[in-house]
Amino acid sequence: MPATPAKLELIETRGFADYALVDSGGGRKLERFGSVVVDRPEPQALWTPRAPERDWRNANAVFAGDDDEDKGRWRIDKPVPESWPVKVGAATMLCRLASFRHMGLFPEQMPHWEWMLARIAEKNGSAEPSRVLNLFAYTGAASLIAAAAGAHVTHVDASKKAISWAKENQAASKLTSAPIRWILDDAAKFVAREVRRGKSYDIILVDPPKFGRGPDGEVWDLFASLPPLMKDCAALLAPGASLVLTVYAIRASALAFDQLCREVLAERGGTFQSGELAIREERGERAVPASLFTRWSAA
Predict the structure, then answer these.
(1) CA distances, 166 to each of 74, 112, 243 (Å)
(2) Which of 7, 61, 97, 122 is most deeply packed, by most CB within 10 A?
(3) In this structure, are strands 36-41 and 61-64 parallel, antiparallel, or unpaired?
(4) Which is nearest to 147 in space by CA: 91, 200, 92?
(5) 253-295 pLDDT per residue, tens
(6) What residue ranges of the chain have pLDDT lower than 70?
(7) Which pTM value belongs to this model?
(8) Rounded to an integer, what distance in angstroms lies between the CA atom of residue 63 and that of residue 75?
(9) Cα 289 to Cα 281: distance, rounded to the nearest angstrom
(10) What are the structural domain ranges in the chain?
(11) Side-chain half-sphere CA neighbours of 212 within 13 A
(12) Residues 86, 222, 161, 197: what is their CA dihedral angle, to the nearest 10 degrees?
């Protein structure tokens, strides 16, 4: 029987208490992370800003410079702490004005975290807790939220700095005793070893960069490296498992990643969702597209 064609979806968030997309337009976005307001590049915000200019001028910091490859630097116009807390569900994330315009938190992922929590809750009555594998896990929001919900988490990232930051977030969240394994490793190598070991996971989160390097200089190129990684991830999925793939890639389509996931999971059946994540302005007028995604569940 021919496969059901993908119907691409838009999943959006309006933010949460400690985060809001205040305004967007003119290739920029104005956001509030806790007590700090930042003005960052957003090439897909093609429309005209609607908030008063004074709102933009009142930003604590502006990321200025060439948006190509995220080159540029922060201009601090009002005092900004070296780090400050932003509450995300059960996690407390310490945000910073990091390089490449990052803050250490991707709020558009909130719908995925909520979806993950629903999968964890479904298994909480069983004999064993959910096993979560978080690949390219960065500063650990998903890892901490999952662990706080009772899951056993394996957090994998190739950056020692990112894992150190994630552990700071763990302490800020008062989750130091939570069952999280911190793994400094190349994601593809780690997953291949887990397949050989016969391991399995109930939830796998995959959030790869476009390009990157592992701790031993391993080269990651999204379009070349993702297909074999996804095949190995498929081999690690336990019965009744779920998977989330998120891709922040320019010149890519959600349809491409949907079809890759359908191929590597063809023998597993299950259900797929694919499309875009977006953040809606707090006034509810426009939504800024943020990333592509595919979600799969065995049931």
Answers:
(1) 22, 19, 22
(2) 97
(3) parallel
(4) 91
(5) 899 899 999 999 999 999 999 999 999 999 888 999 999 999 9
(6) 1-5, 66-70
(7) 0.92
(8) 6
(9) 11
(10) 9-297
(11) 20
(12) 100
- Report which of 299, 249, 251, 247 is spatially closest to residue 274, judged by C-alpha positions: 247
Provide the pLDDT for residue 5.
62
Q: Are strands 237-247 and 219-221 parallel, antiparallel or unpaired?
A: unpaired
Residue 53's identity, in one-letter code, is E
* Res 4: pLDDT: 61
Q: In the prediction, which pLDDT does 185 show?
A: 96
Instruction: Tell me how far apart the alpha carbons of residues 48 and 107 are, in angstroms, rounded to a whole number.
Output: 23
Q: Beta strand pairing status for 152-157 and 131-135?
A: parallel
SS (H, E, C) the chain: CCCCCCCCEEEEECCECCEEEEEEECCEEEEEECCEEEEEECCCCCCCCCCCHHHHHCCCEEEECCCHHHCCEEEECCCCCCCEEEEECCEEEEECCCHHHCCCCCHHHHHHHHHHHHHHHHHCCCCCCCEEEEECCCCCHHHHHHHHCCCEEEEEECCHHHHHHHHHHHHHCCCCCCCEEEEECCHHHHHHHHHHHCCCEEEEEECCCCEEECCCCCEEEHHHHHHHHHHHHHHHEEEEEEEEEEECCCCCCHHHHHHHHHHHCHHHCCEEEEEEEEEEECCCCCEEEEEEEEEEECC
Question: According to the CATH classification, is domain 9-297 in 3.40.50.300?
Answer: no
- Give residues with Cβ within 8 angstroms of 280, minimum separation 6: 12, 13, 14, 15, 21, 286, 287, 288
